[in-house]
Amino acid sequence: MTFVFIMEWNGTVVLSFGGFVEVEKYGYVYFLLLFPLYVFILCSNGIIIFLIWTHRNLHEPMYIFIAALSLNSILFSTVIYPKLFVNVLSNEQSISYPECTVQSFFFYSSGSSDLFLLLAMAYDRYVSICRPLQYSTAMSKVTVRIFLTLAWFVPVFQITAIMVMQSRQKVCNLTLSGVFCNATMIQIHCTIPVYLRVWILFVVVNTAVIPMLLIVLTYMKIFMNIYNSQGEVRNKAISTCLPHVTVLIMSISLMTLDIVIGLLDTVISKKVSLIIHLQVLVYSPLFNPIMYGLKMKEIWKHLRRLLFCRSHVERMNIGAE
Length: 321
Hints:
Layout: E1 14-17, H1 23-54, H2 61-89, E2 94-96, H3 97-130, H4 135-138, H5 141-167, E3 175-176, H6 194-226, H7 231-263, H8 270-295, H9 297-320
Parallel strand pairs: 1-3
Antiparallel strand pairs: 1-2
Helix pairs in contact: 1-2, 1-8, 2-3, 2-8, 3-5, 3-6, 3-7, 5-6, 6-7, 7-8, 8-9
C-alpha cells in the first residue's frame, strides 16, 4: 500500500470527513438543527453544575458525581460541536491530524470517565440502600475524591498512551468515514501493530467492560435487596436508582453504536452511519441533564425555583400590595 500524505503550509496532515450526506445542499439545515442542541447542552449541563455548586444540601456524593457527568458533557461537546459547525458551513469538511487526535481523545476519555462515575454512583446507591448505617463512613469526602480522581485520570492516562502510539503510525487514507473523530480514525493508518491492538483491547476491557459489569452486578444486588422491602421503601429506592440505570443503558447503547460504526463501516450505508454518528453526539450530553434534572427531586426542586423565581416574586409582590 502506498503511503499517501497531504501537507498544509505549516506541515500538518489534513484529513477530510466523508460521513456527511449532501452537506453542500443541506449544510445550513445541519447547522440549524445542531446549533440549538449545542446551546441547550451547554445551558442545561451548566445549570445542573451551578445548582449543585451553590446549594449546600446538594453537596452529597450522588450529586457531586452528577455534576462531574455534566462537566464531562460540556467538555466533550465543546471539543466536537464548534468544529462540526465550521465543517457543515464550509466548502471543505476537513480537520488537521492533531485536532482529530484531540477530538478522539476527549470522546473516549469522557465516555470512559462517565462509566467510572456511573460505577461510583452505583456504589453510592448500594451503600445508601443496602448498608445505610455505614454510608457516612463508606462515602466520606476522601472516598468521593478518590472516585473522582480515578474517573478522570485513569482514562486520561490509558487513552493518552493510545493516542501517542497511534500518532507514530503512517497515514495511508486521508478520508474519515464519519463526521467527527472516533473509532474510524484508526482506519486511516497503513498498519496497526500488534502491541497497539493489545493495548487498545486492554484499555477497552479496563475502562469499559469491567466498569459496566461491576455496575450491572451492583444494581442486581440492589434490586435483590429491595425486592423483599416494604412498598414505600422499595418505591423510594427504585425512584433514586431509575435515573442512574436509564443513563447507564443509554451509555452502553451509545458505546455499542460506536463499535458498530467501527466494525461495520464498510457494510452500513452512509445515511445510516450519519444517523448513528449524530445519535452518539446528541444523546448522552443532552440526555443526562434532562434525566437528572427532572427525575432527581432535590435538583428539580432547585431548578423550579431558579426558572420560576421571577414569577414567584411577582406574585408575592402583588399579594403584598
